[in-house]
Amino acid sequence: MSAPALSPDLIRRAQQSDPQAISAIYERYAPEIYRYIYYRVHDAELARDLQSDVFLRMIEGLGRYEDRGWSISAWLYRIAHDRLIDTLRRRERTHTIPLDAWVESGDDHEDSLELSAQRAMLRRAISQLSPSQAQVLRLRYGYDLSIQETARQMGRSQGSIKSLQHRAQQNLARLIQEDMGESPGGGYSFA
Questions:
Q1: Beta-carbon neighbour count of residue 90 at 10 Å?
Q2: Where residue 78 sits, what CATH number does that domain have?
Q3: Residue that is last in its domain, among 31, 59, 94
Q4: Which domain range does residue 122 map to?
């Protein structure tokens, strides 16, 4: 059940830079804005960063806010939506692959071609996983976090992380087998 809308007086006080009024708006809408963002990016840290950015932009633009039949919550969700779109577009353009840490690079030049092929295969397979599956593998294996630390980072339960990791490992093994031209169930696993 959603809490009632904020009073026009509270909004007017916030527009006059009243810290208590601004704090009341933040306390009322911050959890909802976080959930809205998190369920779209599936990254707790990024969701917190974007949530902070939404409220910073709210403070910066509060003097220009006018109630034109749209509540302040609609305005905040609009800011959150715009920040999400900007972030997702930036991610697409950046195209970074932070998973190189999984495969150690050696100094042996004979192995470098095989190592490059393995890295490329791993990148292709991981890019086909869901964002949450790729993230759980990155946190567990790339950053060597425990199940508990990974659960805290992703804002999920430990049981949910175990299940997500298991599905990610199964999917990764299947994708690598397909990339190698082998039939599924050929005895490979990712752990």
A1: 9
A2: 1.10.1740.10
A3: 94
A4: 98-179
Give the predicted TM-score (pTM) of the model: 0.48
Q: Which long-range contacts (CB under 8 A, 24 or more apart) does 164-170 make?
A: 164/132, 164/133, 164/136, 165/136, 165/137, 165/140, 167/133, 168/129, 168/133, 168/134, 168/136, 168/137, 169/137
| Whole-number Å distance between alpha carbons of 8 and 5 | 9
Angle between helices 72-94 and 19-41 (to 10 degrees): 40
CA dist., res. 89 & res. 29, Å (int): 25
Q: What CATH number is associated with residue 173?
A: 1.10.10.10
Token representation of residue 107: 């100094």
* 122 located within any domain: yes
Give the pLDDT of the chain (191 residues) as one tens digit per residue. 455 567 888 889 999 989 999 999 999 999 999 999 998 888 888 899 999 999 999 999 988 888 777 788 889 999 999 998 888 887 665 444 444 444 444 455 555 667 677 777 888 888 898 888 888 888 887 777 788 888 887 788 888 888 888 888 888 888 888 877 765 554 444 54
- Coil, helix or strand at residue 24: helix
**Are 85 and 73 part of one and the same domain?**
yes
Residue (of 180, 60, 160, 174) closest to 118 by Cα position: 180
Domain count, the chain: 2
